[in-house]
Structures are given as structure tokens and as C-alpha cells.
Amino acid sequence: MKSVHLGVLAAALLASGAQAQQCKSYPRMQGGQEVGPLRAPDGAMWYANISGNRIVRMDDNFKETPFVPVNGSTGGLSGIAFDDSGNVWYSKAHGRAVGKFPMAGGEGVEYALPPENDYAQDLVLGPDGAMWYFDPVHQKLGRVAADGSVTVVEPPPKLNPFGPRAMARGIDNSLWISDLGQNALWKLDVNSLKYKRYDIPEPRAHPGDLVVAKDGTVWFTMTATKKFGRLAPNGVFSTVNVGPNGVAPRTVMLDDNGAIWLSDVGGNLIRVKPDGTTDTFSCKGMNGGIAMARDGSIWGIGNGNMQVLRMTSTNAPRVASTGTVATPAAANAGGKIPNISLADLRKLFADKTRKVVVHFTVWENKGCGYCDGSFALFEDFASRNAGKATFVRVAGDYDDPMWKDPLLAEIGPLKGFPTFITYYDQQEVARVNGRMSVAVMNARLLPAL
């Protein structure tokens, strides 16, 4: 089996002086076990809070809207999914049910599962438009149609007990299931209900989470061997090592760009791009699922918070009107952004002949890797938009009294790390990286050129 060792790559990056980008934590409604996150068609992120027995919608500003499952007296949320009709579906292991409610809010319905297949885990929208789940207790699969009718699907032929651990939609009218009990992957044709078996060459690999890439490659975790597995469309297996110390892999995810993301219990996020190149990010504390937001950031549950990784390569400025963003005014000498005082910033705001882009941050190398990463992003943003606005930076230590200046309170609340990059115009504010800025509609701010 061919093995790609990512520890070598990480060492090379460190040797070159590259700094790993890191996640930032945002508080959530209630910590505890969760399912998700999962991105809805409208871009909002959803997750199921098991301990709170709530299904939660989280918008771009991390504002949460909790929904009570249709029958709030039963719990054990174990899966969430979206159909093509605007509904949120969920499964309840302890509640022995699958239910749905309108994504926009409103009355929902819950369907009882048959006793021989009622411990529902996971939930996947199949290629047939139905919701599918697996039951690890009764060792079967279940199909729930839009009208709530349930079909019990018998397990594949088995030598050992069928031990489903995860399920994913394939590219060709199929579902894929990882089977811990038989150390195998199964491909199920949803029309014929026939299985095809793929034995994993790694003995007792304990396959877990899995995802199917656009070319049909199946990526999956092998927790016992501390590796990620890869099954090519031609049926050939290969592995990806987590790193030199080997930590258990946790989840896999396919992003909008065709890249595969791998997470492990050590807080590492590994991206495998379609061209085969890889890079690694740090996301300490992330211990749940991962998903890509519509702006290209990676969201994941961890340590009672929502962990968010924003990458320089994918975070384009968010603007109300792209036509007004053109580019910033002077390309600063040597491509460097000048550091200015608050007094100078006031003078810039008083000059109503140009736009200004301001980067508020803590000084580099002050223990805030996220802050350090924003320096490079801002330099890149300024260089690509030279001549369209004036780019400046206001920076200081964490305890600098300037962060309490009334001007900053007027511009936008700087809470926690003062690390955000904000584009000011008469009628818009756009987040480029870091904390979300408040909209500022004030004629005092600089008009467009």
C-alpha cells in the first residue's frame, strides 16, 4: 500500500518559516455532545445539541436560533440532514424516531421507527431523495421516504456481525457504509439494494467516518491504525499517515473546491487538494465534525465552542457591493502597510476624499497566531488592491489603553482579540478576516473615490 506521510510536509513548512494558521473559538449556546456542523442551502450552519436536545441554526455572525425537536420529551439526537424541499431532518437514537420540520420554522412531524430497526444513527439524503440511517444495535439500514414510510434494509452478507459506523452518499446512485465488524467498506445500490464489499487491507483498522469525492474516491478513517484510508475508483487502497506521532483520525469532509479535509483528535486539520498537494492547520480542541462555510472557512465543534478556521487563500472580502471595492489608494512604500496612531486615523477619517482600509490587530508574535496570520492576509489584500484606497494598520499590545478609546467604540466594538480587518466606505463594511465588524452607515466615513 502506498503511504503519503504528512509529517514530512509539516516539517518542511516549518523549516521554510511558514506559520500554521489556527482556528478561533466562538462560544455556543450550550456545550456537550453534538452532531454536525452541516451547511444548509442558504449558507447557515446547523448542528444538533444532544445534551440540550435542541437543533441549532447558526448564522454568519454566530447568532444561534435553537429549535425543539417535534417531540421534546424524547432525546438522543443522532443525525441531521436537509432534503430538497426546505426541511431539516433529524434522527433520535433514544427516541426511536426520525423527524423533520421546515427550515424556516413551523410545525414539524415525527415518525416512529419499527422495533426491529429503531436505534437510528446518522442521517444521509440518498440519491433517491429518501433519508437513510443505520442501526448499529439491530445491524440493519433504514430508508425513510418523504411521507415518513420506513423500509428496513437487511444488512450485507456477514462473517462477523455487521458493525456500521458511518454512511455517505456516492456519485452513482449508491451509498457507502463503513463496517467496523468486518473491517470493510460496502457499496449499496439504492435501487437493487445489492451490496458490493471492499475488504480493507489494514488488519483490524476500525473504519469510521467516510466521504466520497467527486471522482468516486472513498476517503475514510482508520482509528485503530491511526491512518486515513483511500479507496480509488479502480478498487485500489492506499493510506495517509496522520504524522510522526500518530494520533487517531476523527472525521473526513469534502469541500466546495474538491479538496478533502481530514481531522484528528490531536487538533490537526489536513487538506488534500485535488492536485494531490497537502497542507496542515492547527485547530486545538476540535473534537467533532467539520464543514465548509460559504465563505470558504472551516467550521467544527470543539471544547464547548464553534472552532472556525479562516484561510488566507479562501477568504475573499465580504462586501455589500463589489463595484465599490475597486482597490485601495496608495500602494505603500515597499508594499508594507504603515502603522499609524489613533490621532492619525482621526485625520484620515476627516479627509473625505478617499477610502480607507484599516487593520486593527495585536502586534505580531505576541502569542496570538491568529493575529499574526491576519498580518499576511492584509498585506496580500492591500497589494492586490493597490491604488484603490489608503491602507493603514492600528496595532498595540493586548493591554494597550488605546483599545478603550471612544473612537474605536464608535467604529465598532473591539471585544476579545482586536483582530479584524475592516473596509470602510460610506455605506458598507466588509469582513476580510477575523471578527465580524458592525455595519457603519456614517457620512463621516470616507466616500468612494
Shape: globular
Q: Tell me, rounded to a whole number, the average pLDDT.
A: 77
Number of helices: 4
Query: What percent of residues adopt helix (DSSP H or I)?
Result: under 10%
The strand count comes to 33
Largest sheet: 5 strands, mixed
Can you tell me the residue ranges where pLDDT is under 50 for at least 5 consecutive residues?
1-19, 312-335, 425-449
Describe the structure.
With 449 residues, this protein is mostly beta strands. Helix content is 9%, strand content 39%. It has 4 helices and 33 strands. It has a 5-stranded mixed sheet with strand order 1-22-21-20-19. A 4-stranded antiparallel sheet has the order 2-29-28-27, with no helix packed on it. Strands 3-4-5-6 form a 4-stranded antiparallel sheet, with no helix packed on it. Strand 7 and strand 8 form a beta hairpin.
Based on the model shown, name its key terms.
39% strand; mainly beta; disordered C terminus; disordered N terminus; globular; four-stranded antiparallel beta sheet; 4 helices; 449 residues
Gist of the model:
The chain is mostly beta strands and 449 residues long. It contains 4 helices and 33 strands. The chain has helices at residues 6-15, 342-350, 369-384, 406-411, and strands at residues 3-5, 24-27, 34-39, 45-49, 54-58, 64-67, 77-82, 87-92, 97-102, 109-112, 121-125, 131-135, 140-144, 150-153, 164-169, 174-179, 184-189, 195-199, 207-212, 218-222, 227-231, 237-241, 249-254, 260-264, 268-272, 278-282, 286-292, 298-302, 305-309, 356-362, 390-396, 420-424, 429-434.
